[in-house]
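User: I'll paste a sequence; please echo it back and then give the predicted structure.

Assistant: Echoing your sequence first, then the prediction.
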Amino acid sequence: MISILIIISTVLVSLAAFQQVKIFDTLKFNAYFVLHSKEYWRFLSYGFIHADYWHLFVNMFVLYSFGRAAEMYFSMVFDGMGGFYYLLLYIGGLALSVLSAFGKHKNNVYYNSVGASGAVSAVVFSTIIFNPLASLRLFFVPIDIPSVIFGGIYLAYSAYMNKKGNDNIGHDAHFWGAIFGLAFTLALQPSLGIHFLQQLGLGLG
């Protein structure tokens, strides 16, 4: 349910930003404005706008695919705190995944990035910790693939696009969002690390 609410709000804000440049400029992540104008909301607001319709669709599709499973796992493991922890996972993914970009570009007024990629990566890799072999069928791939393989493809694509560096999408946020998702989930329940390895056949028996 939380994932659906996030998707709805993100789609609505993104559509509004597509129509009004002022909204886009106010919400996008710009490290220079964060530091020099104290516009701290940009650490979160950038995740609710996107570069184009395809960017929006991909992020929301991935969130829909993994978010519902993540919510279920969090509810099962953390009982009544599951929803709260899941929301922290998403918000933390947004904020922490752009810290690297903030450090690199805090004095560059021309650097901008948008998109929920960091938070989505956090959700994806948190889910992979719970169930790395879960089957996933993508709309452009006619066969099921394990979620852990999808995660690897997702990061490889992000690294490639980050090197190209010709759009406003924060591709480096994918990597740091993934790291946060792993670290946050394991910090909440360290035994999940052993569970993860056992599912991959790497446990100690």
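The chain has a mean pLDDT of 88. The first strand starts at residue 135 and ends at 136.
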